[in-house]
Amino acid sequence: MIMKINIKTVVFITLMGWLFYSCAEPTETTQTVSDSPSAPEWVQNATIYEVNVRQFSEEGSFEQVQEALPRLRDLGVDILWLMPIHPIGEVERKGTMGSYYSIKDYFDVNPEFGTKDDFRSLVEATHEHGMKIILDWVANHTAWDNPLTETNPEFYELDESGNFMPPRGTDWSDVIQLDYENMEVWDYMVSALRYWVEEFNIDGYRADVAYMVPTEFWNRARAELDQIKPVFMVAEAETPELHPAFDMSYAWTVHHMLNSVAAGEEPITRIDEVLADNRERFPDDAIMMNFTSNHDENSWNGTVFERLGDGAKVFAALTIVMEGMPLVYNGQEVGLNKRLEFFEKDPIEWDLESPFLPFYMDLLNLKRTNSALGNGKWGAPMVRFLTTAPESVYSFYRSNDDNTVIALLNLTDEPVSFQINDRIPLGEFRRLFSGETVFISATDTFELDAWGYTILHR
C-alpha cells in the first residue's frame, strides 16, 4: 500500500517520538479492512513453503519430509503446502512417473510417498512443530483411469464424439475434464475436500487452476470446510472474484514484472503500477502470494538464476519484505540451480552449507517476528520513498506500532551511491544479516553493490 502522510499525521508521529526528514511526500492510497477477514489468525506473519514430495529426497516420502520439519521451522516456515499426494493415473501418463495433477483417487495417497498412517504422522508432527499443512487440490479434472469414469461417467464433459476429453485449450493429455454443470460433481468434490480435514486434520488447500472451476462451487466448499475448522485457502489464480472463498491469490503479474525488471526490459517504477492495480482490484483483506519460483516456474520457465541472474537474492528479499505472503519453493533456500524434472525422479541436492540458507533464515524469521511485515490486513502498508537514484534503487518502509522495516534494494547490475531524498523514520536500526546497530540520519549516504540490498529493522 502506498500512502500519503498529511500534516496532521506528521504532527502525530512527531509527538510519538519519530524523527523524519522532509523533502517530498510519499503518495497514499487509503485502505479499509474488513471487520471479519476469512483468513485464520495463524496466517498473520506466515511464510508458505512448497514441498515437491517426489523430489524432496532420494526416498521421496512423507517420512523424509517429516524428518526435515525442525530445519524448516528454524528456517522460518509456518505453512507447508504439499503438491498433490494422491495416486497418479497410469492411462495416458506423461513420462515414467506421471504428473501429480493426474488424480486417480481423491481419497487415497500415492503409495510411492507412504501410507495414510505415514501422512497422518506428518500432519501431527507438523502441528507439534508449530506449523500448519495444506494440500494441493485438483478439482477441475481427473486421470483417465479414475474409478469415477466407470462408476459415474456422467461426472465428465464429453467431446463431439461422446468421449472423455482433456480440458479445453490445454495440452493436458493425461487428464480429463469434470463437468461442473452436474451438481453431483459438487457434492462428490466437497465430500472429498471435507475428508482430509475431518480425518487427517489438515489446515486448508491450494486449489489448482481455481479459476477453471465455478466460483459458486468454491464458495460452498469454503463454507462447509469452515464448519469443521478455520481453514486457509490459496487460489492458483489472480482472480478477485474468487475472494472471499479464498484467502490468498497468486501475485502472477508482480512475478512477471520482477522477471522483466531483472532482464532490464521494464523500469522499476512499473512495480508500483502493478501493485497499485492489485490493490484496486482485490478486496482489502485479500493476501497476495509473492514468489521468485514455484514448481511450474522452476520446471517450465527456468531456475531463479536463469530468470533473475545475479539478482536472485535481491528479488527474493523484495518478495519477502513487501506486502503479501512469501512463498519458498523447496530447494530455493540452498540455492537450487536446476530445473527439476516434472514427470521423472530428480531429487534436490541439499547443500546445507549454501550461503542462501542463512540469507533465507534471517529474512523469514524477520518476517515471522516483525508485525510490520504481517500479511494482508495484519501488516503495515508499503510506503515508497524517494532516493537520489530512483532508476536503480527500489526503496520503501513498512511501519506498524513500534516495528519498522526499511528496504533499500538495487535492482540493477551496476553499483550505486545515493542519499534518501524523502521523509522516512530515522534513528537507531539494526542491519539484517550483520546484526550491526546503526543510526540513520537525514544526511546519510548509502552504497549498494550491483544487485545489492540493505534491510534495516527495529
Output the keywords.
458 residues, 2 domains, elongated, alpha/beta, 6-stranded antiparallel beta sheet, TIM Barrel
Detailed description of the structure:
By secondary structure, the chain is an alpha/beta fold. It folds into 2 domains: 7-30 and 383-457, Immunoglobulin-like (Sandwich); 41-378, TIM Barrel. 29% of the residues lie in helices and 17% in strands. The chain is built from 14 helices and 18 strands. It has helices at 7-15, 53-56, 62-67, 69-75, 116-128, 148-151, 183-200, 215-228, 252-262, 269-281, 295-301, 304-308, 312-321, 356-369; strands spanning 48-51, 79-82, 132-137, 141-143, 175-177, 204-207, 232-235, 248-250, 287-290, 325-329, 383-384, 393-400, 403-410, 416-419, 427-431, 437-440, 445-448, 453-457. The strands form 4 sheets. It has an 8-stranded parallel barrel. Helix 8 (215-228) links the parallel strand 6 and strand 7 (232-235). Helix 7 (183-200) runs parallel beside helix 8 and helix 9 packs antiparallel against helix 10 (269-281). The two termini are 20 Å apart.
